[in-house]
Amino acid sequence: MALLLVLLGFGLYLGNAFNTLVAAGFVAYMNRFQIIPEERILFDKFGKEYKTYLTATRRWF
């Protein structure tokens, strides 16, 4: 979340709309290559307890 805000803030500072696309790409990359594999491993390790945790929390906020 913090890195996403840094990317968006830097884009605003530069006045460059392209950085919005970079931030969107960052979100897509993190979901695909970090969050989903990590959730799979945590589910394998903790099972039903982790599934309950997922229903109570969000990924990004």
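The record above closes out task 2.4. Task 2.5 opens with a second protein, given below.
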Amino acid sequence: MNASELQSGRAAGRRSAIRAFVALVVFIAILATVYLAQPDDFVLYIKAFHVIAVISWMAGLLYMPRLFIYHSDAEPGSAQSETFKMMEQRLLKIIMNPAMMITWVLGLFLAWDVYGFRGGWLHAKIGLVIFLTLVHVLFGRAVRNFAVDGPRKSPRYWRMLNELPTVLMIGIVILVIVKPF
């Protein structure tokens, strides 16, 4: 990658970060407006925003290992590898991290306000969300490792790990919808 391509990549990264920041501010402003207005269906708004954050977070958790699979095959230092580094860092910092934080904050609010932290299903769900967060942390470490061209796991490893967020999501959704215990 030459200096001009690197500069344009950085400029595009800054623009992406600014757009993501503006979107986050708008989201928080809408949430604050709903909170201040306290409509009768306030909790439904919080649930909707929680689901939006979960969808965004899951999209990142499902896409990131695919990037790792392709990145593992790319020659370290190649233009392709540098592109994957940029994609991974943006996905983590601009989408996944904010979505995870919003998911946790709104989810804990709902667990407290709506359910009073009661229900076996709720405790099991929170446990699975903790595991999902640990997967997120593992992916974050992998992004940092790829960024410095550190030792790489095999594409097979990432293919197997790609299934973990899906399995956890299935368990979480069943617990939330069915509330089996």
